[in-house]
Amino acid sequence: MTIVITGATGHLGRLTIQSLLAKGVPASEIVGLGRQVDKIADLGVTAKKVAYEDPEALRAAFEGADKVLFISGSEPGKRIPQHRNVVDAAKAANVGLLVYTSAPKADTTDLKLAGEHLATEQMIKESGVPSVILRNSWYTENYNVAQAIEHGMFGAAGDGRISASPRADYAEAAASVLTTEGHQGKVYELGGESFTLAEFAAEIERQSGRPVTYTDLGEEKYREMLVGVGLPEEAAAVYADADRAAAQGALFVPRDDLEALLGRPVTPLTESIKAALNG
Question: Pfam families, per this entry (predicted)?
Fold first, then answer.
């Protein structure tokens, strides 16, 4: 058995490898691909420097792979050509199962962020490669607790409920799919505990003992604020749109699928914030 993890040197990739090892998968059966392989050198797995822009290297890395966890690219606007290389390489290498990390409700949402993910899901379907789609909702790490204490929380999500879990929950779910049977052809909508941003701020305040407020700016002013603190215009527009969609319920995802894959309850928000405060 050989399991290949793309994007393995990022946060989610590393956590997935750690979860696979915890589940008893031998390090010799895991191959991690990424740009900065030194970040996983301590895990004992085979590490290969491979970028999504290198189709030949991807194909070579996938050769003989039973399963591949395809962690989506992190740069909006560049994902389509990058993802095409991954899917084509998986098909050429006759990968046994391709597990892709997508976006919540990718086939029904108007979330800008989801467009490239839906296109990738379609690529995978058309390729004929056996697959599983993991539509990960938000990570609790998307919200910087230290910054919230220092400056408050800002956004445009209104009273919309956001389903989120720490990356480790999604990594463990991915590892479960990679180490058990019966998932081929499935699409999982993965969501954690839900909260409003005002509730998130209140929990930080409760645990830290420091005043923390959430200020709702609306989509346009929030985008302007993000640009003002240094985000590129395109990225700021995507993040502001995500809050706009969240206000309309786009980021509320039941926790059933995630808990089924975990075999336990999702990590509570209280624990996520506690970990961030102790981090």
Answer: NAD_binding_10
